[in-house]
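Table S5 (text form). Sequence records supplied for joint modeling of the two-component complex.
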Amino acid sequence: MQKTKNVQKNPRTRKQTVKRLRKYMPLYLMSIPGFIYLIINNYLPMGGLILAFKKYSFAKGIIDSPWNGFQNFTFLFGSKWAKIMFRNTICYNIVFLLLGTIFAIFVAILLSVIGNKFAKQTYQTLILIPHLVSTVLIGYLVFAFLSEKNGFINNGILAPLGIKPVSWYIEAGYWPVILTIVQLWRSFGFQSIVYFATIIGFDKAYYEAAVMDGASVWQQISRITLPLLKPTIIILTIMALGRMFASDFGLFYQVPQNSGMLYSTTTTIDTFVYRTLMLDHDVGRSLAAGFLQSILGFIVVMITNAIVRKVDNESALF
Amino acid sequence: MKKKWIALLLTAAMTFSMVACGNDSGSTGSDAAAGSSAGSGDVADSGAADDGGAEAATGFVPAENPDDWPVVTVEAINGTVFPGEEDVETALNDYLVSINAGVKADIVQINMGDLSTELTLALSDNTNPLDIFCWRFYSTLDGCVKNEQCISLEPYLEEYADMWESFPEKVLMTQQIDGVQYAVPSVDSYGTYEVYMLRKEIAEELGIADRDGEEITLEEMTQIMKDAKAIHPEYAYMINTNDDPVQGLDSLGNGDWLGVLMNRGVGTTEIVNYYETEEFRDFCNLMKEWNEAGLLCDDPLNNSMTIEQYNNDVAAGCYVGGYSAEYIKTLVSYTHESVQYKLTDLVGTSASVLGGWMVSSVCKTPDAAMKLLYLMTTDETVARFFILGVEGKHYTVDENGIARYPEGVDSSNSEWNMNCPWFWPNQCLSLPLETDFTGYYTDMLEAPKNAQFSNAMGFIFDSTNVYDQLAACSTVVAEYRPALLYGLVDVDEYLAKFNEELKAAGIDDIIAEEQKQFDAFLAANAE
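The corresponding structure-token record, covering 845 residues in total, follows.
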């Protein structure tokens, strides 16, 4: 029975496909420029990745440059910086992901329970502003707080309290906290809006029913909002994991102002590569670093997705 | 149906515009003029890093019709795009035709802020190649040669012998690798000494203005700064403390000082780890003393420590280098009059040759490019077009032979960038700009005769074998050195840690490799 059904289904499907194709032709056509753009901009350049394994010569070009195996990768692993930069990149990303998500959902839920429309829109706009500020500018905002002799914290807070001024740009120990605060401050607005947009899409009937049954606000959040948010959280998390081995260059370079004494807590793969290759124009070595980051990110995404699929098939990204 | 047609139309339009984007056909005309079918393969053969191919060129023969002459593209740097480009090109090309040069020029203005990206792209662009460029601000000679971004100029040694002979041998050597000439050095004084510059009114208050030009020691200088601080505490008296000459270093071209010659390389051939020396420890202690006395700027790690701090009234004194007292005074239009106290002798090191001009490896007409580069270095008229623009339009010449901006024009609204003479191959062929110092360029040419030269002048370290160690050590230096040189940390504690980490990162390997190559260099040149 099953078999005959399939056989019958095929011609009909083909006919349907053609019909559907014709019906949606304008839409397909409209997407063509997008596809071309993607192919030209995102896929074709991938061919250049072979340069990660070559000694690039500007004269010989991509194809004719000689191969050099893994030599372009060695500078990443040759010193104590290997440990430091991988540790920093991964740890910061985990902390940002964890705290960022919690904080963003928290704010999104707060936004969703605000009744006043004007207030709601004002807050939405306000929390988005940090996301739009250039990192270089943020670097100077932070400097205005932390400058040793003229900064707000040393002069405005510590001095009146009789505490000795702190040389913020020399003490590496403070920076994991400072960078986390800066990152949360500037990213929570945008993330919250994403979650908020999901939350307002939820069927109000769930909440009405819950209120009828006497559920408290906390119960509404933990029993309705969070479970419904789960797929969004998973998707955003998996996407963030793809960037696990990359870091925001601006945050780690501009905000600490490339201050040498802070390297032990502010060096990530990107800033190390930048500092090392800044003067060399060594295409092969920079590509090697980027290639490694992408491959590692890809592996993490595949593993996470596999785990998610095993635990909860419906929520998996693919 | 209507919708479909509109969609089709839009798609076609967008696709077309996207594809058109990638093909910059409205270009400079250099490809048309190049008139050669050279593909990338041919370009590679044209001599890139081709040490062996030192056959003398047969000599550059101009085509009969100037319309058939190749157009050579030349890098120019600036902060904004200057509108005078077309005027300069027209006048320059008219002149080139009049002397039957056989080559025309097309100036490519590149913004300093994008220099790195723009030049990297231009030097890998086969369709619209950049033909002549300078490594200054972009890379190093070594870097350009390793990346095969430039071609060997050996085939042109004979043809343009007069140009090569105009340079001191040691200066030419700074633009060679393994004896192969890759660049034409930018003409300069090739040697500098360092002075401490102090605002004149402060020197007058201290009663030391009459000692202007006198040579002093670092101790005397410290005392002067402290005395000045006592009467004018609102200023800092030093900007950048990271200064090779004052510490007597020839850094061998490596700003991280990973292996240096002391005494600026004069009379010594031993490469040492400067960070381990007593001299460095004493210097750090002195910097600590300066910082504690309030002589240094606030937050030195967060501000750019440049001469701007002097012009902006943050600091009233700083180090400046130059080949003569008068030159230093005109070097930049300082906002305050100054007196200078000499700190070091006039010495030249490899680092004193600040730039070198190269023919790119994507250039399709290297013979023509070299001809233009030759003219830029030796022909006064050609050089002045690049450096000053068109006479009568962009500048006028007064009775003392000084170039002046035309009426109502200054550096802020000039149509041509006249502020970078030192960038071009031969600034000494141009005229001093808006100064009373008529000897600006003539004295510059005399300077090398009075200078001492480092033994390592012309030595270029090939870092291939110790690349990873160098990368690791550079980061360690960036971590510790600024804090030590601005006296921000405890010297004993941090210096010990600094040296320990340098050892772990492999500084000894680097120095051993440097010494090995340097000994070979000395032996080769002793022959």
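Note: Chain A touches chain B through 47 residues (CB under 8 Å).
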